[in-house]
Amino acid sequence: MSNLDTRPDEVVCGGRRAVPAEPVHETLPGREVLLGESTVVRRLLPTLGRRLVGAWCFLDHYGPDDIADAAGMQVPPHPHTGLQTVSWLLDGEVLHRDSLGSLATIRPGELGLMTAGAAIAHSEESPPVHPALLHGTQLWVALPDADRHVRPAFEHHPDLPVLTERGLSATVLLGTLAGATSPGTTYTPLVGADLTLAARAATRLPLEPDFEYAVLSAAGAAEIDGAPLALGALMYLGTGRTELPIRTDAAARLLLLGGEPFAEQIVMWWNFVARSHDEIAAARAEWADGGRFGTVHGYHGERLPAPALPATQLKPRGRTR
């Protein structure tokens, strides 16, 4: 998925200095962004207050939207470098195409994982015949310096490990949770899990004390370690936890994100993750000139033009604003 801001900020984030060494409860504000022609998303990372959770550096939550009589998601071909994209649906279908020639329809409970590495381009759209509802998340994972120039790749995993206990079903979409490991390729220690909770559920999830965590409420509300989490909110939880108590009054759907704090500083702008302003500028120029990103075949429409670069060089500001 693309960052379609016409004037995106260029920010530096990463490093361990701003990672709290104890559990916290921070509710992070999101902002509405128009994605493509018709889809409005809530951007929760990066946001005021925090830019990273482990290597997770971008989180959009969209829907549920009624697209029965609409085209649905229409995101034209656009480029990526230095990151992985994670497509996770709760309702609906998304058709993925990329410059490797990949073609896959992502459905709820299936992992669409694209490793951009050195360079890739892709498009995302609702199929011509599609379900009435569209609801999901799009996430990015920053690649560490040693791996950020790997060859691009796309993975589609329809079968993922599911943990069940009374009142809880947890699908591990990336990384490892409670001994269950996703088949998706990772480059840093992290976890992503979709938690479906029944009404009046009370459970405790085992966590890694060296990881930092955050929880998104995608449907319903919950109580996280005694703190209320409202629908659509993202709660940052810090580090130092060995377990996470969760309880609900009504049924809820949560997304747990976590990972070892990302020690490197990264530069994010538009759809690129790099290490300097000059790298960002070079990637933008190559997309504009039709360079290393390749061609997405089969998408009926023009590719996405790159916005103008900011007039000034970035100023490093760390993990938090």
Automatic annotation (TrEMBL):
Which Pfam families does the record cross-reference, listed alphabetically? Pirin, Pirin_C
Q: Which GO terms describe its molecular function?
A: metal ion binding
Q: How many and how are cofactors bound here?
A: Binds 1 Fe cation per subunit.
Task: List UniProt keywords, sorted A-Z.
Answer: Iron, Metal-binding
Q: Which cofactor does it need?
A: Fe cation
Q: Spell out the InterPro entries in the cross-references.
A: Pirin, Pirin_C_dom, Pirin_N_dom, RmlC-like_jellyroll, RmlC_Cupin_sf
Source organism, top-level taxon: Bacteria
Q: Where is each Pirin C-terminal domain found?
A: 193-293
Where in this chain does the record put each Pirin N-terminal domain? 44-141
Instruction: Name the positions where Fe cation binds.
Output: 78, 80, 122, 124
Task: Tell me which family the UniProt entry assigns to this protein.
Answer: Belongs to the pirin family.
Task: Kindly provide the name given to this protein in its UniProt entry.
Answer: Pirin
